[in-house]
Amino acid sequence: MRELLRFNGTLPDPRDTPGFKGDKGKARREAAALAPEMAELQEMLFANGRVGGRKRLLLVLQGMDASGKDGTVKHIVSQVNPAGARITSFGTPTKEELAHDFLWRITNALPSPGQIGVFNRSHYEDVLVVRVHNLVPRAVWGRRYARINAFEKRLVTSGCAVVKVYLHLSKQEQRQRLLERVEEPTKHWKVGPADLLDRRRWEDYQQAYEVALTRCSSDLAPWFVVPADRKWYRDWAVSHLVLKTLREMDLSWPTPAGVNLAAMKKELLAEP
Ligand code: AMP
Ligand code: MG
């Protein structure tokens, strides 16, 4: 499954469901069935963090407006203990953020040991929106791919598993979803002035994504492309990617140093 989703140089059909056969109901049931193991591994990760372990996990979500980043955050985080999760959404940089290097706000938002961090948008915006809209000179964003690779390599080698997911939406499906937002008062708050400006530059974004995915995929921190036109497939696929990564983190239940369990048991049992 995971190999099917790994970016291999070309983008799939956004309506595809790689690795899955069946309907929405089956996908929802299968994703729900993964939840207990996900919760247990997350607790184990958290427990390791409490006793000095360095392991942590970072899920990076990228995708066009309405590609389902918020929905994916909700789906993943609803399956874990919120105490062990750190969610950060990256919007237009503040004045303070702009005064720093582009990785400054990213570094500040990284998960602590034991945590699962979720990035709703990320450092990749600095080679996506910034590139498409020429927000800094080409020479500046051009150097960022290598900076991102070095940054992610440091993360992974220091014990932070990195799962990068591009939610690949079709232009038609975005139209549908933006229309729903416009027509539905409870969704008006999701509409932003940038939405149409970005939509008009659709092809440029697709190209910017292809370049970012190509230049910033490594064995240490590969990109995964999740076709995102079907929400139930998106949730199913991201659940699998996160769970598979947690499984490979070689976690076990820790015992803190300096605790004598036998002595503790003896004393407790000896109480009158
Ligand atoms: P939303 O995810 O709908 O809340 O929108 C966040 C907005 O912030 C999007 O329009 C992004 O393009 C924009 N954004 C995020 N990161 C950056 C960045 N580094 N530079 C400029 N705009 C950004
Ligand atoms: Mg938006």
Task: Describe the structure in your own words.
Helices cover 49% and strands 12% of the residues. By secondary structure, it is an alpha/beta fold. It has one domain (2-270): P-loop containing nucleotide triphosphate hydrolases (Rossmann fold). The protein has a five-stranded parallel sheet, with helices on both faces. The longest helix is centred in the N-terminal third of the chain and has 27 residues, at 24-50. The radius of gyration is 21 Å and the shape is globular. The model has no long low-confidence stretch (mean pLDDT 96). Adenosine monophosphate binds at residues 65, 90-93, 121, 125-126, 129-130, 135, 192, 194.
The overall number of domains is 1
- Counting DSSP H or I runs of 4 or more residues, the number of helices is 13
Q: What is the alpha-carbon Rg in Å?
A: 21 Å
What is the terminal-to-terminal distance? 57 Å
Q: What's the story with the biggest beta sheet?
A: 5 strands, parallel
What is the highest CATH level, the class?
Answer: Alpha Beta
CATH superfamily: P-loop containing nucleotide triphosphate hydrolases
Bound small molecules, by name, code or SMILES, are: adenosine monophosphate, magnesium ion
- The chain-level mean pLDDT equals 96
Level of helix content?
40-55%
How many distinct beta strands?
5
Structural class: alpha/beta
Strands of the biggest beta sheet: in what spatial order?
A: 2-3-1-4-5
Please write the string of helix (H) and strand (E) elements. HHEHEHHEHHHEHHHEHH
Low-confidence segments, given as residue ranges, are none
**What spatial form do the alpha-carbon principal axes imply?**
globular
Task: State which percent range the strand residues make up.
Answer: 5-15%
CATH topology: Rossmann fold
Q: Tell me the CATH architecture.
A: 3-Layer(aba) Sandwich
